[in-house]
Design brief:
Length: 607
């Protein structure tokens, strides 16, 4: 309807999984590379997970277009089947002939014999066979066990059947169950697709606009900023921020909002999509609970409204405040061999654990560095050094500062806590500087309860009510309020004030074991398992016994026990969050979040 009005040859924001429209974010590129690698290497099982609407099926369609020519593929879209039905479906997808009996179905054995014969013939002809199962979280345990048995046919070099399982996060939970441990051991690569960041949402929208309109204008998509060249700034920056907030970075929801926004603009004869237009159009495609949550209701009411939300990205930050997300949710690739050294976490020398120089001036023309004033120094682990003051109900906005300036100041504040040099900091290089000092940045989507349990100072990405983005540094907490530094001004604010402007995007710094690259996963052999066992033994969870390299079930149980004790999701995998909590227990020099003193006034001061 609106294609001619905007100059599109086709609708840019259809929810159909068209590979031509696939926007390859960094995570999508990595996921596709691992899928292709898994198929070429013939390593058995590959696991791809992601929330609903993050592009798993579209990515899989893109994979199919890039497979080598001598590849046979069976693609199963409806896995709600019995074992017998699964085997029959595999035969149908591979075009394996079988005779249908007059009475009753064929036995499982007959199907398996046909499949094995097909696999041996394909191998002899130099062909690869790949079985892809979408929505695999719906597979029963019996069906999953039968799928494992299909991979028993192998040569000395590789499996004759490669299997890719695609599903929602619940699929990972299934593999943590004891009855599926044999199948879990055969998963050689795991990848989880994450939601898009604000910058990626902008690139995603422009990418689809270019694809939809370039054919009509005789241009080639992907060269320079074609979206601006062809259509101008069709979506204003404020509109893009609003779309990111409402969608939670989920591509399918972005498509729904953008499509309805374009339609609304067409009906109003407008060539520009504004934040106000997006907000109005989103009411027609999003559940009312999502919109209510975005209007910043009180935390209690918001928590109730979000409980049953199908699009759960925003609701996640309020639901289950006592449970941290698993290390899977912040790990890009899982299930590969690890190689951390035996050495414990090494922190930079002479950590003073102080945050210095909270400026009294709020002049945005000042140089953006933290002063060395000792009057405002905070000892990171000492609560009685913090000034008790009334908590504000609304988070102050640093008028006169740009988003980039507040980001730089926030990282300067965080770096000062870790006694890192500030003179090397420039916008965008913060994590590179941290790595130079044997530290790592950990971007994480979380809630305040999660950050309190991790007990690490963190940079928070905040969004003002008008859509403007700014940053602050979380430096202390108590039961109802937090201490936050924004543009060198320190404030004590209620949780509700943070939740109004913060949607879970945060970055903290941690000190990983040497050579740490990936989570220490069960059943993989690496020096990291020996190091992990020694660390856990210091907590007296179990006596230090065999210091072998294999991450066996008893060690996994120790990890789960520790995770439960710390309020983590007990997945048994020692990823970044688990190692951070372990380091906090064992290394008392690590900068942590101190506890605020009770407010000096029971009456909350309005900002």
């Amino acid at each position: 309807m609106y294609n001619d009005f905007f100059g599109f040859i086709e609708k840019p924001f259809s929810i159909a999984p068209n590979p031509r429209y696939l926007y390859m974010s960094r995570h999508h590129e990595d996921a596709l590379a691992h899928l292709i690698y898994g198929i070429k290497e013939g390593n058995g099982f590959v696991l791809l997970t992601g929330e609903v609407g993050t592009g798993k099926t579209t990515l899989c369609n893109c994979l199919l277009a890039q497979l080598p020519p001598r590849t046979d593929v069976a693609y199963i879209l409806n896995p709600r089947v019995t074992v017998n039905e699964l085997l029959a479906t595999v035969c149908d997808e591979f075009s394996i002939p079988y005779q249908t009996p007059v009475a009753g179905p064929l036995s499982n054995k007959i199907f398996i014999d046909h499949i094995n014969k097909f696999l041996l013939t394909a191998h002899a002809q130099g062909r690869q066979t790949v079985l892809i199962i979408d929505e695999a979280q719906n597979l029963s345990h019996e069906v999953l066990e039968q799928i494992r048995l299909l991979t028993n046919l192998e040569t000395y070099e590789k499996k004759l059947l490669q299997i890719i399982l695609i599903g929602q996060p619940e699929l990972r939970e299934k593999f943590s169950q004891p009855e599926l441990r044999q199948l879990a051991q055969r998963i050689t690569a795991r990848f989880h697709l994450h939601e898009l960041s604000l910058q990626e949402v902008r690139a995603y929208i422009n990418h689809r606009i270019v694809i939809a309109g370039s054919s009509a204008r005789g241009t080639t998509p992907g060269i320079g900023n074609l979206a601006t060249a062809l259509f101008g700034d069709l979506f204003s920056p404020q509109a893009e921020k609003k779309i990111h907030r409402l969608s939670g970075g989920i591509p399918r929801v972005i498509n729904l909002i953008c499509d309805r926004s374009l339609l609304a603009a067409y009906t109003q004869n407008k060539k520009k999509i504004t934040a106000k237009l997006v907000n109005s159009a989103s009411r027609e495609v999003l559940p009312s609970k999502t919109l209510q949550a975005n209007r910043f209701l009180s935390p209690a009411i918001t928590g109730v409204l979000l409980m049953g939300l199908a699009i759960s990205t925003l609701g996640f930050f309020i639901a289950k405040p006592y449970l941290l997300p698993s290390d899977h949710q912040i790990s890009k690739v899982e299930g590969t061999a690890q190689n951390p050294s035996e050495a414990s976490e090494s922190l930079p020398k002479n950590i003073t654990k102080t945050l210095t120089g909270i400026k009294s001036s709020h002049n945005p023309t000042d140089q953006f560095v933290i002063s060395s004033s000792t009057e405002n120094t905070i000892t990171a682990r000492s609560a009685n050094k913090l000034n008790p003051q009334p908590a504000l109900k609304h988070l102050p906005f640093p008028a006169g500062y740009t988003s980039q300036q507040t980001r730089l100041i926030a990282y300067q504040t965080l770096f000062n806590l870790w006694s890192l040099p500030l003179n090397q900091l420039t916008p965008g290089n913060e994590c590179a500087v941290a790595q130079q000092h044997q530290l790592q940045c950990l971007p994480i989507k979380s809630n305040l309860g999660s950050l309190k349990r991790l007990s690490r100072p963190a940079v928070l990405r905040l969004v003002h009510s008008d859509g403007e983005e700014y940053y602050g540094t979380l430096i202390a907490t108590d039961q109802q309020s937090v201490e936050i530094d924004i543009a060198n001004q320190r404030y004590r604010v209620h949780f509700s004030a943070i939740e109004e402007a913060w949607f879970g995007d945060s970055t903290l710094i941690w000190s990983p074991p040497k050579n740490y690259q990936h989570p220490i996963d069960p059943f993989f052999t690496s020096p990291g398992t020996r190091w992990l066992r020694k660390q856990l033994s210091q907590l007296e969870l179990t006596p230090e016994q065999q210091l072998g390299y294999t991450y066996i079930a008893p060690l996994q149980e120790q990890v789960k026990l520790f995770q439960i004790s710390q309020g983590l999701d007990p997945d048994g995998i020692a990823g970044a969050q688990t190692l951070i909590m372990l380091n906090t227990k064992l290394n008392k020099s690590t900068p942590t979040l101190p506890t605020l003193l009770p407010s000096s006034s029971n009456n909350t001061k309005e900002s």
